[in-house]
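Database export, one record per block. Field names are fixed; values are copied verbatim from the stored entry.
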Amino acid sequence: MGANLRPLMTALNIDRPQETLKVSKSMELFKIRDPMDEMVEYNMGTIRQQFSARFRWMKTIVYDFSVDPEGLFHYFWERCLIAMVVCTFFLNTYVGFFQSYDDLLGLNTRINSGLTNDEINAVATSGIMLIFFDYVMDIFFIVDYGLNFVTQIVTANGKITDHRTMALTYLKSWGCYTDLLAVFPIEIFAVAGLAGDGGAKRVFKLLGYLKVNRALRVLTLPNFFDHIGADLNNSITHVRIMKFTMYIAMFTQMCAVALFLTACDPSECYGTMETSWGVDYPPGMVKPDSRNTAENASYSYRYTSAMYYATELMTSVGYGDLYPHNVLEQMVVTLVVLVGAVMYGYVLASLTATVANLDVPRTEFQERLFALIRLMDANKLTKNIQNRAIDSVALLWSVNQGEEIPGVKKMTEDMPHHLMEDIQVDDLVHLVAGVPIFKNIEDNILRCLAPAVRRYLFPPDEYIVQQGDLIPELFVVRRGFCHMFHPDQSSVCVAVVGSGMYFGELGFLFNKNEILTVKTVTHCEVIALPRAAFDDVAANVEWLRHQIDAISQDRAYYDDLLLAAKEAKPYVKKGRRQSATRLSEDEKRKQRFRDDLKVANVSRVGALLCKLLRSQTIPMDSRFLMVWEMVRITIAVMQFMVIMIQNAFQIDELSLMITLWLVDIYAFVDIYIKFHVQYINDMNVTVTHPYRTAQRYLTSNCLIDLAGCAPFEFIIWGMAPNGDVVSPARAECLHWMTMIRMNRLLQIYRVPLAFHYLENNIKINTAKVHIFKYCLYFGLFITFVSCIPLIVQCPPLPCALSDAGCFAEINV
């Protein structure tokens, strides 16, 4: 008779010990020891056995510890390390090759005595903080090096958690030794080797070179980008842009180091004007000061100069004022040019392929649409039929976004059968909810019917069913509204079919011709169940087959349907509350606005603000809105160019300022109009109430539109000095005003939105749109890069806004 020792072991905090039996690299079995043996060992064993039994949980924790590469900890740890890797690379390469640690700590500054003691202490403190920050990141790298030995290995059969296998796998990889070299503190051992008189100074002078090995951590970047690029949840476009941006910056840094090392070291630059580009004239790597000595050159200027010339050489745009003087410099230039050509060629090719693959579904869909248009033109079909066909095909794209392409297998067909059924059961839920004969149907029957359900998309004013059609399908409207017309009077609407309502029971139940005509009013999504597919499923369900057969053979039910259709009365829209007095059309519109506002549960403040809105809204496809938006975008482009040129060349004509202020009035009118533009919500329903349209605009583009036309320059007008200032002071004040007016450049954001709208229209040939877009972008870019250097070089003077002004002559 056995005893249950689990409560006793739980009370004594004793875990059931287990032994691991390794079956294969990715499979382990656990052998659980007998609790009685463990109990005896815990109480009656030797001191060593008791100690081992008491602290076995610590051994278990150590043995079971491993890092899951797909876990949350590894996700954040990896990304934090990547940020520190990038920071370490740029920090150590800059300090190591462009500024030594003895200068960073202010040792040379004390010798030169060019600064006060407070300034020297500030320099030394900043250097100490920088070194401390660098060594703190080294601690994280050392911890990561240890965690790599216990990181689980992902295989096709699962994850390997055996410590020996994880450690051996990491030891056999190159990353183990490059990571070790990257965290090895060479500078610490150099202190002992250079001990003696002046040893500390020599260590600080070489410390930057000795710590460059930390930059080897960048070798982990390719694996990181491959890992996140393989994840389908990440956008491959964003991953590649981030990867190439980082690679370009790092390669430019390394090429700048190579250029700088051929002529200088962190302490001094050597060579003459005829032998090296590191001299003072012509302008090279260093900036000459008043004494024209390279030793006093600015470290930051050395770095920016080297980066500038490295970028110039890597992009193969020429030497400019910098050219090689000797064989070493020529070899370095050749290497830099080749590296830049290969790198930028690879980056451009990859980005081009990425952009080209973004529109593959759209291009394939559009080719079929244009082929249909050419076929209809060749057969000389009427424009009305062509437009109906184009709208119907375009509706497929707008809803499915390329998941369903005519004549191409759907992506869902490659999914597992049960997963596809789970996705399609959602359609059947709407079918069951609307049809009485399918009430209380079991889930297993729903899953069997799921593959047979079809979905149809209809544009407005399109027939779904016409009188006389023999369609053995049952239709249920999922979204949208349809009109049902009288069988004898085809122009009389007898019902409005909305979401959840069904029709087509004559063809589905009795296999008879339809007597009613159903036509769409809005965009409609209709799901249908064919009778043949339903019979295949019902053949295995006795009660369902019996129920459908009984209804199909009920002649009285069929006659009732015919009689109800023929005696249907014209549909009358439910009227609104009648007024005691006769109202004009404008008053009726205002009354409807107030009634809808009460339904929306608007606060008192919101209701007060709604009085500023018009009771009518603007349809999205109205010609007025299209023309207005075209004019608005044209004005935004012209305003961008004019403001850039005005600031670059300091054009202070009052007539130009007045013209631009008139454009601002147009922008404020545009903001008011945007409060009244209709939109389609998440349920594909067009929202027409002014309160809802205004609410949507306030939460989208309203703030950036207000910031892009706010007259901040009038603040400068009020800060201008009093009195009649002579022409130079007046020009400087106007210069300030033109600079403040640069917030109008924000209005250019409308241009990419407009092109995005045109490119998403499947009925438009995007080739011409792309040509026009790139030409316009090129013109805007040329204007920007031509004017921005002049704007930066000639900023307005701050003294222009003081009472004294920048000029002595002031007429009182």
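Remark 1: The longest strand covers residues 18-24.
Remark 2: The two ends are 116 Å apart (CA to CA).
End of record.
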